Amino acid sequence: xxxxxxxxxxxxxxxxxxxxxxxxxxxxxxxxxxxxxxxxxxxxxxxxxxxxxxxxxxxxxxxxxxxxxxxxxxxxxxxxxxxxxxxxxxxxxxxxxxxxxxxxxxxxxxxxxxxxxxxxxxxxxxxxxxxxxxxxxxxxxxxxxxxxxxxxxxxxxxxxxxxxxxxxxxxxxxxxxxxxxxxxxxxxxxxxxxxxxxxxxxxxxxxxxxxxxxxxxxxxxxxxxxxxxxxxxxxxxxxxxxxxxxxxxxxxxxxxxxxxxxxxxxxxxxxxxxxxxxxxxxxxxxxxxxxxxxxxxxxxxxxxxxxxxxxxxxxxxxxxxxxxxxxxxxxxxxxxxxxxxxxxxxxxxxxxxxxxxxxxxxxxxxxxxxxxxxxxxxxxxxxxxxxxxxxxxxxxxxxxxxxxxxxxxxxxxxxxxxxxxxxxxxxxxxxxxxxxxxxxxxxxxxxxxxxxxxxxxxxxxxxxxxxxxxxxxxxxxxxxxxxxxxxxxxxxxxxxxxxxxxxxxxxxxxxxxxxxxxxxxxxxxxxxxxxxxxxxxxxxxxxxxxxxxxxxxxxxxxxxxxxxxxxxxxxxxxxxxx
Length: 578
Fold this sequence. Notes:
Radius of gyration: 29 Å
CATH class of the largest domain: Mainly Alpha
Oligomer: single chain
CATH architecture of the largest domain: Up-down Bundle
């Protein structure tokens, strides 16, 4: 019965997203908002973590001003961002000792505080006292949830470590070390605050005994840096995935590890994050405003994750309806209550992540909209091989010497730029290889699977798919790449079923034509398209496509990212009618 109900729900949801463009756009907006909130988290986490840790110098030295703490925090963050280009692997050997010291020392301080201040603090874990607290305080109790949401932050970033560890290791570490450590630490702080309620503005450093203050301060600062590193790495990973999915303008992505997909670095993103983090500290130096912003972004990321995961459970995993209902009801209600509580702090810093997220969402949607319009145009006006044959049959069109790599994103057909090129240049190279770059979610593609060749029914015209993984150095400049393609073409010519039945002289002639074309010269042709925004375009298209053109003009080109030299590159311009 449950299986039938899940199937019916899956079918209903699938039909809804297939038939309703509004539903698809709404889902896309939710996913983009969650992505942008996570990027906002990557800005706020380093800022609040380092600022809170560095604020500890003010307890033993009251003369230290808030401005000096902000300046020190900014210096630490700048140093952290400047280290990103070396990759996480270079410094990751320090992470385990730092976090090990943190998870061991803070609960010991917590136990000491519990014994000396309020030994019966663990009764707070009882549902009886939780119910009694909300029953007695009502609205005030609900509002106080906004102050406790920071206690659960960090868990939303655990997925970032999936680029470095497997899920089982993260689960074991969380259950047996992180969770007990957090419970004892927060219980110790609570026990201290019960006896010293006026110290609530700086409960962490004030509950630490004087004898171990400085060691804990050093460990806390280092742990804040490690936590910041986790979110910075997560931001790089999210933007890299968005670029691959064509939801974000092209930026340079460097894989700092040859065997871990999650370890990536982007220079442009790194320095933008650095500027924004420092700006948040210097402009919103009051920890309360940043804390409120942090609470909003974390709770919203969790809520959006719950919504999207529920859809995955129904439509992809086909999870039984009872389990889906239990998961959604428990987590949606719990996270929804937290979101409603932190939203009361919207005017007190809670607007910061929304400002960041909506700017990022506008960038992502603008890029996505422009790319979709281009793909739609290319699919509608694509050149078929039959049409190519008609173009080449024109006596005006000449087959000129040389080897041409003509890049196309369409696998079932050819880019309309090809027709534009032939009509205006009145020529095509004697050997033309229509090349498509395909990204695979593997570290490295095996050499024998790197290049896939398909012969067309036209003389000297081939289709080539170059497959590469995230750790492959995709460089198609130089003799090595040409040798690989030529050898793949020769093997295809010799092993093609249509050619096996042909005489050996024809095969040798085709192979000789390849070598002759290579000696005559190699060029790489790729389109550089722009939208022509006419008077008939609606206001929405005018705004979004104009914005897309600005981003497209300033983002990285596709050809330099694959190493094509300027001398061999030809870019063919074409206007697509919007």
